[in-house]
Structures are given as structure tokens and as C-alpha cells.
Amino acid sequence: MEKDRGILIAILVVLPLLLQAAKISLSPPDGNSIDFEVTASGFQIYSCVDVNKTGHLSWALDRAEAELFDAKFHTLIGFHYFLPKPDAGGGRATWSLLKTPGSSSSELPSSTVTGKTITNLSGGRGNIDDLLVQATSHSGHTRLGRASYIQRIKTRGGTAPSDEICKVGGMTQAVPYKSDYVFWTQQASDVIEGHHGYIDAKYSTRPLFLLFGEGFQHYRFDGSAWQLFNASALLSSIPGQEVIGDHYFLETKDARGGQPTWSSFASPSTVTAKPVNTLRPATSDSISWADLHATGNTGDKYFFGGVTYVQRRSTRGGLPPQVSRAPKVGDVFLSPYSAVYWFYVSS
Ligand SMILES: *[C@@H]1O[C@H](CO)[C@@H](O)[C@H](O)[C@H]1NC(C)=O
Ligand SMILES: *[C@@H]1O[C@H](CO)[C@@H](O)[C@H](O)[C@H]1NC(C)=O
Ligand SMILES: *[C@@H]1O[C@H](CO)[C@@H](O)[C@H](O)[C@H]1NC(C)=O
């Protein structure tokens, strides 16, 4: 009896914690899969700074330096370090693989990815956070050259020293840490669990290509609700690759009711479309997945000019404000988001 009550209390205490933990996910959006995993050993390097110019010194992460090892054979396969300055996408944390695993000589790396942190979760007492990092730039075409997301998991150590020993501005302290890094890649096939062939069956179309979009959903408060009125996003093949086009809403709907538009820089062409179906409803942290029917095209028939359907999938963020101070009519809110857009042609 006493024991049962103990278990019940334990469940009541643990359940809310589990629910809370489930809310923040360190997983990349659906449509990405694990490419490979490495173990890392190195240092988190903190510098003693007066961040807010208030005369109060504290430790701030300056950079990290680590060696990367093959998870199976434990051979040195690369390095983790920070760029001196952020790249165009705002990333500094970088991973490079050696051309020849096991040899740390000064060979050029075979591939490199740089990324920015988009989610963090506590790594437990004394350990640095677990992270989800999104790629912001690449070099090389092998392995890391196709990384879309990087997870830092199983962290041990690496937390900032006590502020009490931060007495001299500019002083640095290297704290040993270990972790695993998991490199993800964006799936290039049309099979995403449970959603394969939806468009094919209904409209006899085939996928032409897919693009990663990152930017903002634009909302305006109309007196009773936040209304979506525009989007601004840059399009690339995967996160961190060269920008090849953009996404926005036409000023007004076109003759057939379409407004969301995708435009390519290199092969001048556009497709405008209107939403016809919800593939997956919005969740607590992401906008819906949707089917859109093309209402107008311009330019290159082999690019956006030939597209008949668009799917928005693998969404992250982009929701209107959840709870906020009372908005005024006309207030605008830009909600950061990313999605993968699939473009189809009639077959
Ligand atoms: C600096 O200021 C920001 C914003 O006011 C605050 O959140 C942060 O804790 C401050 N950092 C330090 C080290 O005092
Ligand atoms: C994420 O990082 C921020 C800044 O370091 C920290 O304040 C916050 O507690 C972290 N979140 C979790 C869930 O650990
Ligand atoms: C959306 O923004 C783009 C510029 O980013 C602009 O050209 C377009 O007219 C805007 N559309 C609406 C409906 O405001």
C-alpha cells in the first residue's frame, strides 16, 4: 500500500517533467535522416568578459576545439573548431573531416560544415547543453558537404568555471569536454513516412526537385486574429547551401487565386500557387504541411515555369504569436520558420 502510493507519487512527479521534456525536441525536422556519428574530445574555451559593460565580469563561451573520432574504430577523422567570425548564415561552430583518417598531418580537409545553434537542452548537472545545430555553410562535396543538421549529444563536462575566478578581463579558461556529434542529411527521395505518393495518386504528378526554405511568415493583427499576409524566405538545396531563389507572396492574388510565389535567380522562372489541402495540421511549434495547386507560371519550363503542384513539408516554427501583450490593429509579426518545398510536374 505504502509502496503503491510511493509509485503513484513518483509517476505524478515524473509525468509533468516528461511532458515538459517532450515539448522541446532536439530532432531535425522530418525528412532528414542520420548520415553518420562521431565521438569528440576537446575543450570548451571561455573568456572572462564584461558582456553588458556594467563592470561585472563573467565567463562567456569564446570557442571550442576538439578532435573527432570514428565512433566504431576510434581513429582520428577530423576536427571541431570555431570560425573567427560568423559566416553569412550566422554560424561559427565548424566540423572538418580529414582527407586521410588517422593522419593528423596538415592535409586539407575533405569536407567542412559550419552551423548555428537552433535548439538547446540541458545536458545534466556539470555537462554542457545538448544542441541541435543547423548548417549555414559547407565546403567539399563529400560527407560533411551534405550535412543539413548536427546534434551534440551525450555531453560530459565543459561547463563554464565559477564566476568567482573570473577577475581579469580577456583571460581565458579551457574546460575539457566530451560529446557525440550526429550528422544528419536531407532525404532526397519522395518517401516521407505516411505521405508518399499523395499527390501522385490524386493528381498524377511526379516530383521535379525539392528546396529548403528559411525565413519568416508575416502576420498582421486585424482586430480579432493574426492573419498571414506574406512570407519572405531564401531557397537552397539543403540548409547552408548556396541560395538559388526566394519565396514571397504576390501583392494581390492572381487571376486564379494564387498568392504564395517561388522565384529562381539562376533559371529565371516563377510559380504562384494556392493552398488546396492540409497534409498535416500545425503542431504546438510548427506550421502545417500543405499541398498547393499552381495558378500561374513564368519563365523556364524545366524549373518553376513547369511546376504544377507544390508541397510544404518538414516545417519548423512559423506560427503566429502565441500569447503576447494585447496587439493593436495593424501590428505586424515576423515569425521565423523553415520548411522543405517539393515541386511537382504533371506526368
Ligand atoms: C546581460 O544583459 C542581458 C539582457 O539584459 C541579460 O539577460 C544577461 O543575463 C546579462 N549578462 C550578464 C553576464 O550580466
Ligand atoms: C539554453 O541556453 C540558454 C543560454 O545559455 C540557457 O539560458 C537555457 O537555460 C538553455 N535551455 C535549456 C533547456 O537548457
Ligand atoms: C511580400 O514581400 C515582398 C518583398 O519581400 C513584396 O514584394 C510583396 O509585395 C509583399 N507582398 C504582400 C502581399 O505584402
Can you walk me through this structure?
This protein is mainly β and 347 residues long. It folds into two domains: 26-186, no CATH class; 198-346, no CATH class. It has two helices and 16 strands. It has helices at 2-23, 198-203; strands spanning 32-49, 58-70, 76-82, 93-98, 109-121, 130-139, 147-157, 172-186, 205-221, 226-236, 243-249, 260-264, 269-280, 289-299, 309-317, 332-346. The strands form two sheets. Strands 1-2-3-4-5-6-7-8 form an eight-stranded antiparallel β-barrel. The N and C termini lie far apart (67 Å). The model is unreliable at 1-23 and 191-197 (pLDDT under 50). One 2-acetamido-2-deoxy-beta-D-glucopyranose (NAG) binds next to strand 5.
Name the poorly predicted regions: 1-23, 191-197
Helical run tally: 2
The secondary structure category is mainly beta
Name every ligand kind in the structure: 2-acetamido-2-deoxy-beta-D-glucopyranose
For the biggest β-sheet, the strand order reads: 1-2-3-4-5-6-7-8
- Give the assembly state of these chains: single chain
H/E order of the elements? HEEEEEEEEHEEEEEEEE
Biggest β-sheet strands, sense, barrel: 8 strands, antiparallel, barrel
Strand content: over 45%
Shape: globular
Architecture blueprint of SSEs:
Elements: H1 2-23, E1 32-49, E2 58-70, E3 76-82, E4 93-98, E5 109-121, E6 130-139, E7 147-157, E8 172-186, H2 198-203, E9 205-221, E10 226-236, E11 243-249, E12 260-264, E13 269-280, E14 289-299, E15 309-317, E16 332-346
Antiparallel strand pairs: 1-2, 1-8, 2-3, 3-4, 4-5, 5-6, 6-7, 7-8, 9-10, 9-16, 10-11, 11-12, 12-13, 13-14, 14-15, 15-16
The structure holds 2-acetamido-2-deoxy-beta-D-glucopyranose (3 copies).
